[in-house]
Amino acid sequence: MEDKLRALEAEAREIILAADSLPTLEEARVRVFGKKGLLTAGLPQMREVPAEQRPVVGKLSNQIKSGLEALFAERQTELSETARRKSRAAGELDVTLPGRVPLPGRRHPLTLILNDLVDIFAGFGFTVVDGPEVELSYYNFTALAIPEDHPARDDRDSFYVGESVVLRTETSAVQIRTMETREPPVRIIAPGRVYRRDAVDATHCHTFHQVEGLLVDEGISFADLKGTLYALAEELFGSGVIVRFTPDYFPFTEPSAQMGIWYGPGGISRDPAAPHSRWLEILGCGMVDPQVLENVGYDSERYTGFAFGVGLERLAMLKYGIDDIRLFFENDQRFLAQF
What we know:
three-stranded antiparallel sheet, elongated, BirA Bifunctional Protein, domain 2, eight-stranded mixed sheet
């Protein structure tokens, strides 16, 4: 048995050493290590070897296989180096070198959450509109019934680029521009970048993204607003999500409210009695103030509407478990590759 194995080893070595190029070495690999190669056919099956010979035969078989694999790897290295030298000498591209594997493209988490919102509200019958980021203070403040002495108008809170021109502080300005050019019914969302003089930390940034929603028609009530936003929460976070509405104040809506979501250490909580869970406010909303409707020429006796504004960063942080808003803007591939 040992003589037979040694003869098999010698034949296999001869085949490997006879290869003089990478293609012929590949042919040698198939002849020696392939499914129908010398080793597969020549090495004995242990069940066919007498029990007293199995330790010796098994050890020798493993030694032969390991030795041939090492010889093959050594020959492959030699032939690869020879091919590279020939390629460099000829001044040609070395096609034997491994290519650069292209990294797959990824969508940014803010793009993912925005696409979700657009799809959801398209299903609700809303259309997407856009507006300028550099905005007249009339559209950003005055038309939204924000008083002259409101803190938001102060240059310590907003970025002014002229006496009456400002980087928009919210996408609510888009609803004014839209209502000026459309007759009711109006059913829109307005996503975009907004700017405020906020100190940068884990939950605040001077530049962030917002989606404004607006619906104006006859007979619109606060119940329509609550139903729409509750459906939004279920579409985003799944059924069983727990939400609440608490009174608030915004100059351009009356009544106004904040919508909160029941949130725990592990994310969205669906158990109202879950320990360590708390209410987390995710958006502001309310019924459009009649003065705002009058500012764009709508009959406030005939039409009513609701509006809401939600931060994309806040929703993305909730949905994907992100604890620092700065990660969205740092272009760290380790972070972005997770989405």
